[in-house]
């Protein structure tokens, strides 16, 4: 069907308007079936937390994502585990061996000082496309708005292609309150002063997704999307759900 006036969506290969899914261990056969129908809506696949380390047929899963023009990478928790055990060189060698071209530098569990993360990014950007994450998985560990802005700016200036705002798969930390409520004052400050095309907002629930779509536009970058929600999210982006019904009036917010 192609007769409605809908918000204009970016197309693959997108550089913004990204949908980044979280793969927490979906079997490869099931994944293949989903990608056959919905791969055009997916840009990035995070093989979440540390599951990549124990995923059966990991090479085949990586190849499947690449076959469907989706960029796979390993979750930041695995990076942090390697950092903690001083195994970064082994981690890098493994990523190269598996054909992984993207790497996440995060500090969700460990408190890795910003200068150390920036140094790693400056080194690794010669070998990988770098993504960094800002914010803690610990809901009690809060940051000021000024610190959020500073980290995002520093990480982008160091060479990150995108920076993720922490939200967890539960939507209860980072840019969210423990209750799951969005820290709207923080978000408004971030979108006012920073290039939102370079920020991936973790938005694991429909409520979170629709907030960002309505505030920023249909081509906001969203992460931690469940595979089963990919089609629903695209529907939301196109103003085909009640909560985003009048989205065509907001499409100019982000080209």
List the helices and strands and how they pair.
Layout: E1 19-23, H1 28-38, E2 44-47, H2 58-67, E3 71-74, H3 76-84, H4 88-98, E4 102-105, H5 114-124, E5 129-134, H6 145-158, E6 162-165, H7 184-193, E7 199-202, H8 206-216, E8 222-225, H9 230-237
Helix pairs in contact: 1-2, 5-6, 8-9
Structural commentary:
Belongs to the phosphosulfolactate synthase family. This is Phosphosulfolactate synthase. The protein has 255 residues and is an alpha/beta fold. The chain has one domain (19-253): Alpha-Beta Barrel (TIM Barrel), CATH 3.20.20.70. Helices cover 37% and strands 14% of the residues. Strand 5 (129-134), helix 6 (145-158) and strand 6 (162-165) form a beta-alpha-beta unit. Helix 5 packs parallel to helix 6 and helix 8 (206-216) runs parallel beside helix 9. The chain is globular, with a radius of gyration of 18 Å.
